[in-house]
Specification:
Helix 2 packs across helix 7, helix 7 packs across helix 8 and helix 7 packs antiparallel against helix 11. This protein has about 575 residues and is an alpha+beta fold. The chain has an eight-stranded mixed β-sheet with strand order 5-18-13-6-7-8-19-28, with helices on both faces. The longest helix has 19 residues. About 30% of the residues lie in helices and about 20% in strands. A hairpin with a 4-residue loop joins strand 15 and strand 16.
């Protein structure tokens, strides 16, 4: 029975499961049976805080295992008053300091980082004071303009999830590179569609050869230091090397893929250990037995439930899978994460408040995020948006790559596949799903396509002024020249820079110019979403003229802006609802 159900059965207010700690002055979730009343009343000590902190560090059951040993008859927080006991006066000030509002059960679907890359942290009974406690767990890094200042619930969003190889935390001395400053060991770019029908988790290999751009970083004294970029370097050096922060990794992702990360989440090895332990273990399936002495991992073929150190070894080992390379390890990590997501979303997890408090506590302690999502309430907003995406429409895939010819006969690194990767990047930029989605998205596309249907004017009749609202200098003039010389759109003019930057190119026109708008869209390859019925302006001849504003999606004069109708198939892609065995 969950906490809310127990409260109703025992006629106990669920809010009473939170008790005042007189040592701290804060309310805390009590996870143990109340001790017998002594002759001299003393403060009660909730087991949750001490157990959660110490057990997480040891990689043992942060979900309250020791608490259940102490109180075998209860798997949920005990009521404040012992049944059958006489009246008990509360410690002074308890009732006066109880929060005015009763906590409400909330499903918190949170994705966090670490070598496990991202997890779902289920539902927690979260009141204001719990959120305040969790808020203190989250670390933030100011990455300046690399991240957005706030989170928008109305747009598609991209979160870069980074797992570092830094040996921080107890028991991590044998993992990662000794003395590592914390490189970008595991990287996933999570794209969530605007309509929340689908999401894509794109893994970026750490050994991918890239050009790391110059990176402005915030210093402790508030100043900004630009870390010089490097060419032909491993992707993992975009973090930690020469003092690079997660903003540098975000900038590198944009340079390599053309996809702009909005926010980042980062964690180290402890995230895997504490979170898998807190949820009670994760089910994995192996096609063959594994005995990796370097990773201290030994498992027979078949199904296993792993947690803590064993779970970390599972996602860290590369010698147990495929050709013993990072690409095969990425595939196994993706299978592991799909299983973890299913476990987190299970009824056992969502209805156990003790387990969920441990999960929320462990997850927030594991996280470092940008300031735009640094509050727990904002992370809950992110979680609520992620919760809307069906698992069957969450696609895991890896950046298409090929062996680096510069390595010679021994392949150590990879490069972006120039033929297969661009269509993948374009699909994500244009919010195109890698899975079949329901009628909601189809209806939207049909409505946009309808704007392109109908009569079209001749190119010579098109009257349009062009403004540059993107990032490419000279875009308006280049487009004007291309339209006039290549397509005979002679009644066009360059009006310079737009008043503000736009993410997407738009064409605004009044109803009488709709045939001209359709013709210009056909010439330029504009999608239906770019056409904005509205008002025209008057040109120097006193005639109504459309306004074409080039956005940040502009790729060059003559390059179509129409997104692909369907995302490409990527070798090895999978979805979160599928059970797959590691090989």
């Amino acid at each position: 029975m969950d906490a809310q159900g127990r409260g109703r059965a025992d006629n106990i207010d669920p809010a009473d499961q939170w008790v005042l700690n007189p040592d701290t002055g804060e309310y805390e979730l009590r996870l143990t049976q109340s001790a017998p009343k002594s002759a001299v009343p003393g403060p009660r000590r909730p087991a949750s805080r001490g157990a959660s902190a110490t057990e997480a560090d040891r990689g043992t059951a942060a979900s309250g295992e020791k608490t259940r040993e102490a109180a075998p008859d209860h798997t949920v927080p005990a009521p404040r008053r012992r049944r059958g006991a006489g009246p008990e006066d509360p410690p002074p000030g308890r009732r006066g300091r109880r929060p005015e509002k009763k906590p409400k059960a909330k499903k918190v679907l949170m994705w966090t980082g670490g070598t496990l890359v991202f997890v779902v942290v289920g539902a927690a009974t979260a009141g204001y004071l719990v959120l305040k406690h969790l808020e203190g767990n989250v670390s933030t890094t100011d990455v300046g303009g690399a991240a957005k200042a706030s989170f928008s619930k109305d747009e598609a969003f991209n979160i870069l999830i980074i797992g570092t190889d830094k040996r921080t935390g107890k028991g991590n001395e044998n993992y990662g590179d000794k003395g590592s400053v914390g490189h970008a060991d595991t990287n996933v770019l999570l794209h969530v569609s605007k309509d929340r029908t689908n999401a894509t988790a794109l893994s970026i290999p750490r050994d991918l050869i890239v050009d790391v751009p110059d990176c402005p970083t915030k210093q402790p004294d508030g100043s900004t230091k630009v870390i010089p970029g490097t060419d032909n370097d491993r992707f993992n050096t975009s973090l930690g090397q020469s003092g690079r922060d997660p903003g540098c990794t975000m900038r590198t992702v944009k340079a390599v893929t053309g996809i702009t990360p909005d926010h980042f989440m980062m964690a180290d090895f402890n995230a895997v250990k504490t979170l898998t332990t807190a949820v009670g273990g994760v089910n994995v399936c192996l096609k063959h037995a594994v005995n990796d002495k370097k990773a201290h991992l030994e498992l027979t073929a078949g199904e296993h439930t792993i947690e803590g150190e064993q779970a970390l070894a599972f996602v860290r080992t590369r010698y147990a899978w495929g050709n013993r390379g990072d690409l095969d390890r990425i595939k196994v990590q993706q299978h592991f994460l799909s299983s973890l997501m299913r476990e987190m979303a299970s009824g056992d997890t969502l209805t156990d408040p003790t387990k969920l408090y441990g999960l929320a506590d462990a997850a927030t302690k594991a996280l470092t995020v940008d300031k735009g999502i640094g509050k727990v309430t904002t992370l809950m907003d992110v979680a609520q948006e992620l919760k809307k995406v069906p698992p069957k429409n969450i696609t895991f895939l890896t950046t298409p790559v090929r062996d680096n010819p510069a390595d010679g006969p021994v392949h150590k690194t990879v490069i972006v596949d120039p033929n297969l990767a661009p269509p993948v990047f374009d699909a994500i930029v244009n919010d195109v799903s890698f899975t079949e989605v329901k009628k909601k998205q189809k209806a939207k596309k049909d409505a946009e396509s309808a704007r392109l249907k109908g009569t079209q004017s001749e190119a010579s009749e098109i009257r349009v002024r062009i403004l540059n609202g993107g990032d490419v200098d000279g875009a308006a003039q280049d487009t004007l020249t291309w339209l006039q010389i290549t397509h005979g759109v002679s009644k066009s003019e360059n009006k310079g820079n737009a008043p503000q930057k736009l993410s997407k190119t738009t064409l605004e026109y009044d109803a009488d110019q709709a045939p001209q708008a359709r013709k210009l869209a056909a010439i330029m390859g504009l999608p239906g979403s770019a056409l904005k019925p509205g008002k025209s302006v008057t040109n120097s001849q006193g005639l109504p003229t459309m306004t074409l504003t080039l956005g940040k999606d502009f790729k060059g004069a003559g390059v179509s802006l129409t997104p692909p109708a369907k995302a490409p198939e990527v070798e090895g892609q999978s979805t979160a609802d599928k059970v797959e065995c590691a090989s």
